[in-house]
Design a protein that fits this description.
CATH architecture of the largest domain: Orthogonal Bundle
Function: Key enzyme of the Krebs tricarboxylic acid cycle which catalyzes the synthesis of citrate from acetyl coenzyme A and oxaloacetate.
Order of helices and strands: HHHEEEHHHHHHHHHHHHHHHHH
CATH class of the largest domain: Mainly Alpha
Number of domains: 3
Shape: globular
Distance between the termini: 56 Å
GO biological process, one term: tricarboxylic acid cycle
GO molecular function, one term: citrate synthase activity
InterPro entries: Citrate_synth-like_lrg_a-sub, Citrate_synth-like_sm_a-sub, Citrate_synthase, Citrate_synthase_AS, Citrate_synthase_euk, Citrate_synthase_sf
Catalytic activity: oxaloacetate + acetyl-CoA + H2O = citrate + CoA + H(+)
Length: about 450
Amino acid sequence: MALLTAAARLWGAKNASCLVLAARYASASSTNLKDVLANLIPKEQARIKTFRQQHGKTVVSQITVDMMYGGMRGIKGLVYETSVLDPDEGICFCGHSIPECQKLLPKAKGGEEPLPEEKQVSWLSQEWAKRAALPSHVLTMLDNFPNNLHPIFQLSAAITALNSESNFAWAYADGVHRTKYWELIYEVCMDLIAKLPCVAAKIYQRNLYQEGSSIGAIDSKLDWSHNFTNMLGYTDAQFTELMYLYLTIHSDHEGGNVSAHTSHLVGSALSDPYLSFAAAMNGLAGPLHGLANQEVLVWLTQLHKEVSKDIPDEKLGDYIWNTLNSGQVVPGYGHAVLRKPDPRYSCQREFALKHLPNDPLFNLIVPNILLEQGKAKNPWPNVDAHSGVLLHYYGMMEMNYYAVLFGVSQALGVLAQLIWSRALGFPLERPKSMSTDSLMKFVDRVQWDLGGL
C-alpha cells in the first residue's frame, strides 16, 4: 500500500505508491517505509538487470532536428519510475489514472477525497512529525528575508540552507559504499518532506501575508496535509479537502517537466536531495511552469473586471481574440504532451461544481476560440485553469504563493524518484550536444548516404 501517499491522504492507487514503485508487491500490513523499500529494491534491481541484458540494444526513439531545436520534446530519453504521462489518459501513478485512483481508494473520514489504509497514514504522519523541526539558522534566514522577495525564491533558498542537515553529504565525504546511497537518500528525503510544510507555512505566515503570525505546532495525530493547512491558518474543512486534492494532483507529472527533470539531473551528480530539490524549485519558478496558475488567475481577474456576467459570449470572444492577436497566450489552456482535456483539470472542475458552482471566476470559461485559431495542438484546459481559482475562492488571495504550494506537493514525487534513482544505480546524466554547424554537417552526410543508396 502507498505509504507516502497515505500520509498525504491521497495520491495513489489501491496497491501502488509514488515513493515505493513496486509497493504492489509489499504487505499491506507493513508500516515502516524503509523496511518496505529494503525488501523491494533488490527485486527491482534484479528485474531491471534482466531486462537490460535481454533488451539493452533495443531502439526506443528516433530523434529529429526539430526535436533538438524544440526543447527535446517527444524524445524518449529518460527513465522516471514514479509516474507516466499519457497523451490521452493524462498522468498515471503506477499504472492508475487520477479517475481510477479516486474510485479505487476509500475516502477520508468525513470527506470525499481518497484515503489509503489508516495504519500507514498514522505511521508516516508520526514519522514526519518527529522530523519536522527546522534548524535555527534556517529560521533566522527566513526571518531576515525582505517581504518583497517572491515566496518561491524564499523556499528555494531555505531548502538549500537545509543542506547543513544532510546525512548523505556527510556519509559520502566519509566514503560510504554506493550500495548504501539509497538508504541515506531515503533519510534525507523523509526529513525534507517533513520540514517543507513548516518552511512553506513560515514563509506565508511570518514573511508575507499574516504579519508575523506563528505557524503553531505539528499535531502527530493529523496527517501531513492537514497539518500543513492548519499551519497556514486555514481551518475550513472544505479547504482541507481542497488541499488533499491539490497536493495529490500536483505531486508528480513524469520526469520530463522542468522541475522534475532538474531534480533528476542535479541528483545524478550525487548532489543530495536538498540541493536537487532546491534546483527543481528554481525551475518551478518559471512562468511557463510553476507560476502558470498565478498567471491564469491574474488573467481571469482582469477579464472579470472588463467583462461583466451579463455580457454575451461574443464580447468575451472579442476579449480573447484581442489577447491572442496581441501575441499573448490564453493561460491555463494547452499542454506540451496531453492531447485531451487534462484529468487534473477535470477533477478540480468536479470539486468546484460541488462546492462553488456559482463562483464568477470559476464560470469564466474560454469558448472554442482556441480551436478556431488552430495553432494549439491541445486547446483544452490544463491543471492551472482552475487551481488558482479554487484557492482564491477559499480566501487564499496571495497569488504569488501558489507556486510554493505546487512545490510542497511536487516533493512527494520527485524525491521519491531520487530514492529510486540511487537504489537502481542510475548514472550521471550527460547527453551529447551539437552545434548548429555540426548538426548541419551531420544532416548533409545522412542525406548523401541516402542518395547513394
